[in-house]
Write a structure and sequence with these properties.
It is built from 4 helices and 13 strands. It is mainly beta.
Length: about 190
Amino acid sequence: MDNLTSPSPFSTPSGTVEAVALDPGHAFSKVVQTHIHLLAGLGVEGDAHAGLTVKHRSRVKKDPTQPNLRQVHLVHAELFEELAAKGFDLQAGDIGENILTRSLNLLGMPTGTRLHIGTDALVELTGLRNPCTQLDAFQPGLRQALLDKDIDGNLIRKAGVMAVVIKGGWVNTGDDVQVLLPPPPHRKMEKV
């Protein structure tokens, strides 16, 4: 699956990058950029959450030696449109995402899905972002709006997905995103 020059039997139609963002501090929101640079095994160059081990403050307190499975945060732009219909006003970078995508069902992808972004970058999805209480400080009620239940009553987390960088490269607004599914059986993403 690392050979991206030949078609994968597990590839699906592509989406696009709508926006990219980073922040060198631990602010809740990230600053929109025209491009970001992904570093293999680390994350987004210049972003507070880049590194081999966990960088999210709550996780560092528990065990700073944990591997960083949250190097890159991705959110689908359609979520912002869904939330706008509920009265929330969200712009790119607002909920801390590094990459805002369009036309990708990020939440429905299995663990281990790889996204080839732009010319060189390759990330692997590790799990779902768990909506935190900071969302309510940003806009009251936002945390609950990012939680839902399926028809069987199972919790659905809609705050985006987390990934690790497999191959570094530049990611630009407007880049194509190619989805490379892992071989079956697929595992549903859990919170990380």
